[in-house]
Amino acid sequence: MYNDSVIQEQSGLNAFYNKIYSLVGIGVGISALVSGLMMTVFQDFFVQILTTAPMVYYAAVVVELILVFVASGKAVKNSPSALPIFLIYSALNGFTLSFIIARYMQATVYKAFLVSALMFIVMGAIGRVVKKDLSGMGRALMGVLIGVIIASVVNMFLRSSGMDYILSIISVFLFAGLTAWDNQKIRYVYDQTNGHPATGWAVAMALELYLDFINLFISLLRIFGRND
To answer: What angle do CA 195, 197, 200 make, to 5 degrees?
Structure first.
């Protein structure tokens, strides 16, 4: 009976992980699709925004920030609107990402994406199997994240390529660590809900992991494409 209970619990946890990672995959896929369409099918519209209406891009970034908080809040409350908002956010993020990706050579983009995916998988596996509580590390990393955000805003005015390079390196380690912590949190959420986590929790955790991956990708893109 004990073995059956353990097997059943592990099966339920695996199903929860699979559900979350399916949502992450869908989110990344939507973002990649929208970015690709912006730079190919809608290339004229893309160029028009770059040359005559850059405020469209900045407005999209502001809406993105709002959607992140809205989606997270709705997910925690297990609202049915959490998933549609997450998908809309993924599409909008694909739109804004296209303006970043367009600055780099295709080979650089592919390399950054491949390395990001490998790091994401490895750190996710570490977070899933490690027994040590990573919450202390997670809180420290959140403090580092605030510092990186502040430094990035300052560098928008300084325009220092050296500072940007250093922040990108820090960000790689930062989001790699957060990936491990967020994967461990999935197990904690599953345990705290007695093996019956609501769909909202799956969306909330998928959003966190999606953000980890996207920021890891952007950081590596800046490092690999420094000389592009």
So the answer is: 170
